[in-house]
């Protein structure tokens, strides 16, 4: 079975050949054979933890049965296990009739009151029930175990796991010599990492001085299996090579430096972390499913995500419908790209639901306005910019549009054809198109207020203007193709602000943030009679001053009129409320605060209630909050207005 749903976790779980650290019992126990992983939460579960019963009887609480409790979101009520005192996290058992709670680790292995013959100490130890997360005198680390024990004769304290660690072991990955339990100060080891898992060694570890072989405590107690038969990784049985060795992983093509699994008959090597790579996935950069391939056909393959070369001889993901589309294995499963679902065995999603139903050749019933029919107008009617589209909230000038036959509802033809569901590079999950109605939202991409249509999930929304951007764009300010990238913070060449989500050129340092990418190339403002053009300051020298606010424009992009020789800040021309439908009562996400956006003019330029200025922005908001009526000029002032109203009432 590829994918299962269990009551112990809210997301689908997938089989994995081993578990290093369990998200159920929180045991750092090395490698335990067979279990499940959640790609969404990036956690693993022991098989027995994931398959725990919903109700059990346990000797720690014989009075009543215990019920499984799954923490769906942040668990604000702080509780600790009654046996070990550990904080309770993802799943635990509780008694609904009393306040008894117990974690998964204590369900499986309750801590004994005494350890009569510990391996690491000559005296017996007793359990300090009310002292946990203390410092262990053996390993000198605080968080390596859940239970703390003390020797009454020596006054030394031991974590439960440390008390049972032998001082010398024979490890299956290094059987020719015994490994001794040492500290970093006792021996100069090779590279400070575990030979098996590559993790940084703690203060205590096991070591062979002859072979310079080091393993951490977790891999010493529960080493990874020497052989694995896991068809998801390889058709044949693969074997662990526990040594320092340079190799290229056949699954992802990246270099490794230690302990791969290999198949000698196929000359196949794979990272331990690549063994359970998903086989069929959806990503937000491509409309079709991608399948994992052992290798691609010979040829030149650019990665559809990072745009670098994909070595066709190594594993990659490719599309069976688009013959030239492929991605690196690691690029495809990036957190900002993959939706964390393995789709093998899962049927394809149904055909896309159309946004409207055709009534006749030029008449439709749109999902956002089902009460009336919309009529298509393609005669290039010049509307003068006073009529706005309900979806993008931009003026309709001479574009084709649909208009309601009974009310003033209007959509651009392109906006009426927007798909109901889509994947987008800004988010890893599918997004659903919803109508704006009477509510305001902030677009995640450009940060603009909008009351138009939005592509959204429960916690994410982008407006339809930003949704129209593809992963690769051509912007007239730059001669090269710009690619969307989510990486280290870079400064936008248009506004000078730093951003992590950007469009940049692979060949030079040209960077645009998401807000500046969607700046309109031309726009209008009542301050000037002519259309204003966006100026990119290419080969333009001299100092410019904004004719609206009379402040310096510095080195940023700006709007100008070549006929009148005037320049304006982009924010002064566009304002903060240009994507809110004028003349309509809109509910903001500020609790109880309603606004009506009003267009300004030379004859109507009200003073802002907060900053007391008369800024010549194209729109202002009239705020309604109980008995308050006030004009607001910007988003910053709107926030202050909310706090003013809140303090008064």
Automatic annotation (TrEMBL):
PANTHER family membership: CYSTEINE/HISTIDINE-RICH C1 DOMAIN FAMILY PROTEIN, ZINC FINGER PHD-TYPE DOMAIN-CONTAINING PROTEIN
UniProt key word Zinc: yes
Lineage: Eukaryota, Viridiplantae, Streptophyta, Embryophyta, Tracheophyta
SUPFAM superfamilies: Cysteine-rich domain (SSF57889)
Keywords in alphabetical order: Metal-binding, Repeat, Zinc, Zinc-finger
Protein's UniProt keywords contain Metal-binding: yes
MF term (GO), any: zinc ion binding
Domain Phorbol-ester/DAG-type, residue spans: 120-173
Source organism: Brassica carinata
Any one Pfam family match given in the protein's UniProt record, by short name: C1-like_CT
Name of the protein described by the UniProt record: Phorbol-ester/DAG-type domain-containing protein
Entry-linked InterPro entries: C1-like_sf (IPR046349), DC1 (IPR004146), DC1-like_CT (IPR054483), PKC_DAG/PE (IPR002219), Vacuole_Formation_Reg (IPR053192), Znf_PHD (IPR001965)
